Structures are given as C-alpha cells and as structure tokens.
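ok so for the tutorial part 2 we go from a plain amino acid sequence to predicted structure tokens. step 1 is just haveing the sequence, like this:
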Amino acid sequence: MGLSVLFNIPSLQSQNQLQNTNQSLQNTLTQLTTGSRINSGADDPAGLQIANSLNASIAALNQSVNNASNGIGIGQVADGALSQVSTLLNTAVTLATEASNGGLSSDQLTALGTEYNNIMTEINNIGGNTNFNGTGVFTSATTSIFLTDLATNYTIGISTTVLTSSNLGLTTTDFTTSGNPQTALGEINAAITSVGGLRGQIGAAILQLQDGQNVASVEAQNTTSALSTITSANIPQVVSNLSKFSVLEQTGMYSLAQANSVPQSLLKLLQ
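step 2 — the prediction. this is what the tokens look like for a chain of 271 residues:
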C-alpha cells in the first residue's frame, strides 16, 4: 500500500476497530454490573421479547399465589366463625332440651328462653362483624378468588353465605309457650346440619385454593428459571471477555498511535 497524505487508511481502520472494542468492553462492564445478559433491546431483540413475556407471566403467577393466600385466609376466618356458631348451637340444643322438661317453672322457662334468644343475637353479631382485611366475610353468598396457571384462568368460590339466625332457619321464641322448645329443637338441628355442610364446603375450597397456590408457586419457580436462562449473564465468560477486551483496547490504542505516526514519515522524505 502506497503512502498518502490525503488519507490515513491504517488509522481509520484502527479507529473503527478500537470503537468496536470499546463498545464490546462497555457492554461487558454493563453485564458484569447488572448480572444480566440483556440490558437493552439491542443486546438480544428476540430474547428481550421473550423475557418481557416471561416477566408478565411470573407477575401473574405470583399474584395468583397472593390471591390464593387471601382466599385461604377468608376461608379460615369463616370456618373459625362458624365453629363458634356451632358451639352456640350446641348450647341452644341444651337450652331447648331443658326447656322441654315439663317440670320447670315459668320463671325458669323465661330464663332459658332469654338465654336462647341471646344466642340468636350472638349468631347475628358473628355474621355481621366477622371480617377479613376490613371486608365482611358473610356479606355475600360466595367470594370468588381469581387464579391463573398460565394455561387457564379460573376462579374458586368460597361459599360463605349471608350468616344470620333467620337464614339458618332459627327464630326467637318464648319457651313459656307449650311446644315452642320442641319446635326450636327441630330448627336448631336443621341449623347444625346447615352449618356443618357450609364448613365442609369452605374446607373443600381451602384445599382447592392450597392446591392452586402450590401449582402457581411451582410454575412461577419454573418460569423464573427459564427467564434466568435467557437473561442472566454467564459471569465466568463475562470476566474472561473483560480481560480480552481490556487487552484489545490497549493494543488498539497502541496501533492507532502507530498508524497516526505514519504521515510523519512522509515529512522525512522532504528533508
């Protein structure tokens, strides 16, 4: 190649190569700092698109785990409240059975009836005041919990019902009136059956939510692993690249200096 004062081709080549090396070095430093192989769309456009999709899936799965936890909490609170109702109903059975005894005085029957009716009030209080995260548990027939396992979006219903003594078929009554204690016994037994069935439904929903939570957790873990495979930097390789590009940058700067000194040689021809 002839020497020219108009163009210094070796210098241009050295500049281009040094610029490429510097860009590679900067990318390597960024990967080392962030631990991620993909830090911009230019690094891997297809990989970035896949990573964004996986991130969205992971977010949905993790929220499903949280949704299931909330649903389990609602179910457990509801079951605990219904356990109290069951205890109250058992007490009511005792009161009504005692009031059915023909040897009691009017005052005794009145006292038993008052205690029985207080139980009705307490059941209403439980239904109206039981809440989870500030929301009433027994304000609707069903609480729907949304979950996703990526392949399917679905809801699991917790049958909490509107809990009142009247909805359980119970009525306030006067035990001094003949036959009322026996009538109350029939109502109480039916209510006990209803509460038992409701607790069974809630228990089944809790188990279903736990299963859904486990599935979402495993899928979130697997999806995170797939995301890591795509985006995580290979640190040993990055460290190796850092050494390589650092050396190339130094040698490139030396080569550029040498290329820039070539025109000085032409001046010597004029001396």
